[in-house]
């Protein structure tokens, strides 16, 4: 199996989360979702696409972690740094690991009678709800409580190794975007242009390409989340492609806008405004700044530039093993930036009815300010005249 | 937005699930997971990679469906065939759609006081557990119950359009596998060979490549789910690559084994045995056969051929909008094959300690027997002597 980090890095993650667990009075933390399973175990697989078998990872208050996994996964985890790997013959719909899991949890030292799970904001569990209820019953007086704040607090601060993989992912996608003007032209579909970009991203070394969205229209677009469509690009269109590619599971998440032929002046001016908004955010992106202040700084540029609205609902977010992670750059999020965070800066606006433009870069918060991980977009929209 | 099916197809899916809901006495079905949201709504996006915002789809016992989605998604769904789209300004961590959702559910006609959710086998919900508990509270005397059997019963039978997309996906990946012997050679890593295959799959027209696993070793491998590693292929190795690529969301899921140089005779014989096992399954793959009988037919070939064990736990499964869907070809699954099902036939065995071989094809159950959707692998292992 690919293990992208040293055993020390995993030990460090575990000891940091154990410190959080102590504050939250948890006897153990039970993890089931792919990104958290990967973060604590190092397990690198896309087998999550098969929903048949749950996978469980237990971090006790003290001591070694325990993986409780279906037999198909045991050979991979038994050879790793993890303290103990237990497995059951799966699929076994009559008891898909729940008894083995509850027996293991009940065998741990009990102090607070509380086990944390991924229950809160931006967290989901990867096990059937029926099995969650069954687990609750089997645990009796031991409570299942929300452990997600512990996890997010630890994952928010990236190690140098994590930042390096995000940097590599940003570089691979930046290289692929740089090649786009040479192959894209009016008359092609969003899908054809995006496909050529995808090939460059995979050939360039990305391990996976879990997210690509595209949208286009005269002078802007209406949304930014749909898969590339069969819409044919015409003179005057702006095409956005937004990419989340990974290296060792670590995402980049940024978009680029391309104009085709004669693009309306209003669109060009709006594009410069959203670029200026990223600059306003960069200028204060340092430890101690609240993400609500990033939002305010960007809005200070967007509103005078004629912003009508923005259905995205925030102007950037955290980035790492997931395409989006907390925090959210919005007025109600007062998360304070700390050294080692990686975030997106993503101003966007509808500058005319039905015409939206969004710009996005990825940055790493260092003591001396932001390190821009993406290859900086130019202020003037790139125009393709092929 | 890409809509891969006619409005009639969606209306048909909804009326079939409404018939199941009537049997299960459900006033509504609430769907949150990406494949089910897509199946009933047609929504085609990889935005699921962002965990920030839940998406809800409501199928009432009678009448039009209702999408309850974050504002970022409203433009896409409002233009579609769906009866009504409601949205809330998101992210809004203090109430991420739960009040709008519960108000909408409570406004529906009440007959049984039961709302189905994805709670059972091979099902997960895509909303925080805390919000599920909040929803339960808000619904008061209306019970949330398991609605997943209704959904799986409907999804199990594929329409001709669904089969066509799986067929296309199988063809694209078959073409890419056919090119592999021309570019792969000893001395390359699993990763390099898999990357070239990935490029061919994307360039060949796959919309996404959510799953690729690879493993290699002298005469076989120990597991089949890890991402391609940096292991260098040597003379005598067998390399397996297992691929789940999609067209309009519909997966293929099959693997191919490649020998390099002088492969041990035992491995070659074992490869012929697993091929023979697929033939034994094909011979009885028709409406009326139980999947436990498919398992038995394959075991009748594998055991005499020297099978030690098989950590995969089953010998094939359903296929469609997910890499794996029910049923599971194993002794305890007596699901009866019906016309329109698409399944994998996936015999595998450890034929010597630490040496596993797995073979997989995808078939469509028709009244006249199996239609093999993958380009049939040869009985003799393909040997690469580059």
Q: Could you explain how this protein is built, in words?
A:
Chains A, B: One of its GO terms (molecular function) is aminopeptidase activity. Chains A, B: This is Peptidase M24. Chains A, B: InterPro entries: Creatin/AminoP/Spt16_N, Creatinase/aminopeptidase-like, Creatinase_N, Pept_M24, Pept_M24_MAP, Peptidase_M24B. Chains A, B: It comes from Pseudomonas silesiensis. Two copies of one chain form a homodimer. By secondary structure, chain A is an alpha+beta fold. Chain A folds into two domains: 149 residues, Creatine Amidinohydrolase, Chain A, domain 1, CATH 3.40.350.10; 225 residues, Creatine Amidinohydrolase, CATH 3.90.230.10. In chain A, 33% of the residues lie in helices and 23% in strands. The mean pLDDT of chain A is 97. Chains A and B meet through helix 3, helix 5, helix 8 and strand 7 of A and helix 3, helix 5, helix 8 and strand 7 of B.
Structural class of chain A: alpha+beta
Cα radius of gyration of chain A in angstroms: 23 Å
How many domains of chain A? The number is: 2
| CATH C-level of the largest domain in chain A | Alpha Beta
Give a count of the beta strands of chain A, DSSP E runs of length 2 or more. Answer: 18
* Largest interface by Cβ-Cβ < 8 Å: A-B, 76 and 76 residues
Mean pLDDT of chain A: 97
Straight-line distance between termini of chain A: 45 Å
Tell me the β content of chain A. 15-25%
Supply the CATH architecture of the largest domain in chain A. Answer: Alpha-Beta Complex
Domain Creatinase N-terminal (chains A, B): 13-157
InterPro entries (chains A, B): Creatin/AminoP/Spt16_N, Creatinase/aminopeptidase-like, Creatinase_N, Pept_M24, Pept_M24_MAP, Peptidase_M24B
GO molecular function (chains A, B): aminopeptidase activity; metalloexopeptidase activity
Domain Peptidase M24 (chains A, B): 164-366
């Amino acid at each position: 199996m690919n293990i992208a980090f040293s055993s020390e890095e995993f030990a460090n993650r575990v000891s940091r989360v154990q410190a959080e667990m102590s504050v939250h009075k948890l006897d153990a933390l039970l993890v089931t979702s792919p990104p958290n399973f990967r973060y604590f175990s190092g397990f690198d697989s896309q087998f999550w696409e098969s929903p048949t078998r749950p996978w469980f990872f237990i971090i006790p208050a003290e001591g070694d972690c325990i993986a409780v996994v279906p037999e198909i996964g045991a050979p991979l985890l038994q050879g790793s740094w993890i303290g103990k790997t237990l497995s059951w013959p799966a699929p076994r719909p009559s008891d898909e690991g729940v008894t083995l899991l509850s027996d293991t949890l009940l065998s741990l030292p009990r102090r607070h009678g509380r086990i944390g799970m991924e229950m809160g904001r931006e967290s989901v569990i990867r096990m059937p709800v029926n099995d969650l209820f069954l687990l609750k019953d089997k645990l009796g007086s031991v409570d299942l409580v929300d452990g997600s704040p512990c996890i997010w607090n630890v994952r928010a601060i990236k190690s140098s190794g994590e930042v390096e993989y995000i940097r590599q992912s940003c570089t691979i996608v930046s290289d692929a975007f740089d090649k786009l003007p040479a192959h894209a032209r009016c008359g092609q579909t969003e899908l054809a242009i995006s496909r050529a970009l995808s090939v460059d991203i995979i050939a360039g070394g990305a391990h996976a390409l879990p997210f690509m969205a595209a949208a286009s229209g005269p002078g802007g677009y209406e949304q930014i989340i749909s898969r590339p469509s069969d819409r044919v690009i015409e003179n005057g269109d702006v095409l956005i492609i937004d990419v989340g590619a990974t290296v060792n599971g670590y995402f980049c998440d940024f978009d680029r806008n391309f104009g085709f032929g004669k693009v309306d002046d209003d669109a060009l001016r709006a594009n410069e405004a959203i670029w200026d908004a990223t600059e306003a955010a960069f200028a204060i992106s340092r430890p101690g700044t609240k993400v609500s202040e990033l939002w305010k700084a960007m809005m200070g540029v967007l509103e005078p530039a004629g912003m009508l609205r923005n259905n995205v609902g925030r102007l950037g977010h955290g980035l790492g093993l997931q395409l989006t992670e907390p925090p959210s750059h919005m007025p109600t999020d007062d998360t304070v930036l700390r050294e080692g965070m990686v975030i997106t800066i993503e101003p966007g606006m509808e500058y005319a009815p039905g015409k939206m433009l969004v710009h996005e870069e990825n940055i790493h918060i260092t003591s001396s300010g932001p390190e821009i991980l993406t290859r900086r977009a130019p202020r003037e929209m790139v125009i393709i005249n092929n």
